[in-house]
Amino acid sequence: MRSIDTAQRRARLGVRHRLAYAHRSNEVAAIARSMVVLHATDPATVYLSAGARSFELTPADVERALYEERSLLRMLAMRRTMFVAPTELVPALQASCADALAHKQRRTYGKYLAEAGAIDGDVGAWLAEVEEETHRAVLAAGAATGAQLGKAVPRLRTQVHLTPEKSYSKPTNITTWVLVTLGAEGRIVRGRPNGSWASSQYTWAPIESWLPAGVPELPIELARAELVRKWLHTFGPAPVTDLKWWTGWNLGDVRKTLAQLDIAEVDLDGGTGIMLADDLDPVPAPTPWAAFLPALDPTPMGWQSRDWYLGPHAPALFDRNGNIGPTIWLDGRIAGGWAQRKDGEIVYRLLEDVGSDAHALIEAEVVRTTGWFGDVRAIPRFRTPLERELTA
Fold this sequence. Notes:
about 400 residues; alpha+beta; four-stranded antiparallel sheet; three-stranded mixed sheet; 14 strands
């Protein structure tokens, strides 16, 4: 069994994730492809992840790729997480993840409606009618907010009180439920936000606005194999448990998918990892580099087993739910964290000694990151201990 040491894994990370200087790109879609997908739970992450992997991109370039060129699309996929994906990967994500998610969402929301007694008659049929009416309204409008669709489709304003026994609970209408289900099904898509690039208030548009023929159907086995192959290229070598965690699939489905691919097992400092069998050649270590990655960036969120790049820094950099905050990277490892204060200043703290040369690289990234934000202030949706301390 071939051994892949930590130094090689870090070299691959720097090169494959476009963080090493010579491998950065000024093409937004190319950056997204390099990472398989970009995390988008926090809207600012998409922009900051792209900025960290380029020298000349601006937020306007990311907006252009998303909403004018439409080479990228925002969708729910693995682990019911929001991602921005290259449009050519959407069929694989739809078949391997989103279809099952749509089915689960519809079943869950139907259960809520039935338990609340909000609907007389067949809840499933009623919900299907509302979905169809909403889809027709989106097609007619071309782009609309949830509030606008609620006016066009009155049944979207149906209210459900999920926890009436709680004093703080309030009834909620079903608009978001229906829109999320239609989005997961690949019929509508989140369009341009209302406000800055850090806003999470989106319009909704037909999927045909991005994919004129809709989402092409792909057999689930082929879809899973395509997704896993891309993950292994970007994040391999890694334990099978990391792949299981990232996809959100059960272990049986993961193993069935791996059986379709030519996989090699390798030793990872005493543990067993997997990688593509035609990807065993070592990647030369890049020149020293530094990067300021945002909260929930796809690099640190690509693995469940993180010691080889995280070290002892998890308590400072993760919240209680496993969400990582803004991090400072040096040559494939995390060395500290950073934050943006209310006045726009970028501040940071190193969690280990790094040497004077690394300090110079870090200061250069401070300047780049400050320029990227401009007048925008973007507080991470998930606050971590170090980020809170830096902005106190």
